[in-house]
Amino acid sequence: MRKSRSVVLENKAHALNTIIGGYQSMGVAFSGGVDSTLLLAAAKKVLGDRVVAFTAVSDIHARGEKELAIDMAREMGVRHVMISTHELDDPDFVGNSVDRCYHCKRRLFLSMQEQAASLGIIVIAHGANLDDVSDVRPGFRAARELSVAAPLIDAGLNKADIRQLARQWGLSNWDRPSMACLATRVPYGTMIHLEMLRQIDRAETMLRNLGVGQCRVRHYGDMARIESDAAWIERMASPPLRRQIVEGLQALGYQHICLDLEGYLSGKMNRGNDPPDGL
After folding, report:
1. What is the DSSP letter of 36?
2. Sign of the CA dihedral 156, 108, 220, 99?
3. Are 51 and 40 a contacting pair, CB within 8 Å?
4. How many whole angstroms from its chain centre is CA 104?
C-alpha cells in the first residue's frame, strides 16, 4: 500500500533527526533562508546548545539578509557567529567562471572550520536539499573536499518537503522566497564588481517594494532581464506596473528592460554551461 505524503514526510523528518543525532556537535552554514533554517531548527532540537549558526557577511549578499538571519537565529535561541568572507578580493571569484561558486563555498567552509575548531564544534553542515543535486552546483565539490555534511540531502528532503516541514514546525520564514548570492544574476565570463552587485540589489529591492515576490534581475550590462513567478508575468506586463518597473530600472542605470516569459527557474543561468571536471 502506498504511503501517504504526511507519513513519508514524517519518516524523512525522523531520518533527519537521526542523522543529526549521530553528531556530537554541529556548525550550520546559515543564510536565514528556509533550507538552512530548517536544518538549524532540527539541529537545535536534537543537539541543544551543541549547535552554532555561521553566517557569511559579504557584499555578494542582498541588503537585509544579515538582519533576517540574525532575527531567525535569535528566534530559535541559537548561538550565532558572523564571518566576513571578502569574495570580491578573490580573483577566482571575480573572474566569474563556471566554477565561481566552488571558490566562494571553499572560502566560506574553510572560515567556518576555523571558527568551529575554536568553539569545539566538530561537524560542519550546509543546507543543500535534494533538488539542488540536479543543478550545476560547483559548491558541492568544495563541500566534499572539506567533508561538509548535507543532512537534508541525506534525509531525502526536497524543497517542497522543507517548506511543508518548516510550516509544521512554526518557522516564520517557511514561505520566504528562495535566496541566492547576487553574483548568480551575472552571466559567466562577465567580471563581477561591487557597483554591479549593488545595482542588482537595488533593482530587486525596487521590484519587491512594488509587491513582486520571487524575482531575479539578471544583469547584462545595460540590459536587465526580469524573472518572476508565472503568476506575476501578466501583471508586470500591464500598465501601470509595467511603467513603474521600466522607470524604476532605468533610474538605476538599465537602458533595456526585458521580461522573461518563461518565468523564474532556479539555476537558469547555468543553461548551456557544463560544470568543470569533478563538479
Report:
1. H
2. negative
3. yes
4. 13
Looking at residue 55, the DSSP 8-state letter turns out to be E
Burial of residue 35, with CB atoms counted within 10 A of its CB: 0-12 exposed, 13-18 middle, 19 or more buried: buried
Closest CA to 279 of 140, 111, 181, 77: 140
Question: How many residues are there in the chain?
Answer: 279
pTM of the model: 0.92
User: In one letter, which amino acid is 279?
Assistant: L
Rounded distance, CA 206 to CA 55, Å?
25
Extended beta strands in 138-233, E state: 215-220, 223-228
Q: What is the pLDDT of residues 54-86, one digit of tens each?
A: 999 999 999 999 999 999 999 999 999 999 999
C-alpha to C-alpha distance for 273 and 61, rounded to whole angstroms: 23
Cα–Cα dist 143/129, whole Å: 13
Give bridge partners of residue 83 from the DSSP assignment: 56
Looking at this protein, which amino acid is placed at residue 11? Answer: N
Cell 549578499 locates to 61
The pLDDT value recorded for residue 2 is 57
Helices (H) and strands (E) in the chain, counts: 11, 7
